[in-house]
Design a protein that fits this description.
The chain is globular, with a radius of gyration of 20 Å. The protein has one domain. Helix content is about 60%, strand content about 0%. Helix 1 packs antiparallel against helix 2 and helix 1 packs across helix 5. The chain has about 180 residues and is an all-alpha fold.
């Protein structure tokens, strides 16, 4: 799935968690962890490509007419960032250190679970059992037009439900709401 959709799904999950469970949840933190696997996998390559492009000047082009040179620094991190096993290890360590479950980390889990069926074997199929197994699922490529449209239609529906339930506006303390209602009268 594309990184924008990952961010929006994770934020929606963070909003729902914030309103449903009795612990504080950072929606921004959940959204960050929702894009983390792709940032870890592709961020170093993008940063290095931008650096090389800027350092070499405007006339330095990459092969094949690409704007940025191809740099594969972060790609070895792709399997680790998209592994359920690595996620579970990080969650366990984080839970022990923080002495609580860091709910925001579940944005990372959501990313992995979404990527498993939305990547084909031809393009970054998710090795979600890495390093134990290289097993991958031949899913629907997320950039397939009908699937991309369905994804964003589903996101629109989810955010419509969140809006309808009043979950998109910030919570107001009960005392503060009473003061505002009295001021309106």
């Amino acid at each position: 799935m594309d990184i924008v959709a990952h961010c929006l799904w994770a934020a929606a999950a963070g909003i729902a968690a914030k309103r449903s469970i009795k612990t504080s949840v950072s929606v921004g933190g959940t959204a960050w962890w929702g894009v983390f696997p792709d940032v870890l996998a592709f961020g170093p390559s993008l940063a290095a490509g931008l650096w090389l492009r800027l350092a070499a000047g405007p006339t330095a082009g990459a092969a094949g007419g690409h704007v940025l040179p191809h740099v594969h620094l972060g790609l070895p991190l792709y399997p680790a960032a998209h592994s359920l096993i690595v996620f579970l290890l990080v969650l366990a360590v984080t839970t022990l250190v923080a002495r609580r479950v860091v709910v925001e980390l579940f944005g990372w889990l959501l990313h992995i679970l979404i990527d498993i069926p939305t990547h084909s074997l031809r393009f970054y199929a998710t090795r979600f059992l890495w390093p134990i197994s290289g097993f991958r699922v031949d899913g629907v490529a997320w950039w397939t037009p009908w699937f991309w449209i369905t994804t964003y239609a589903a996101l629109a529906a989810v955010y419509l439900v969140l809006w309808w339930r009043g979950w998109l506006s910030p919570r107001r303390p009960a005392a503060d709401q009473g003061v505002r209602e009295a001021a309106r009268q």
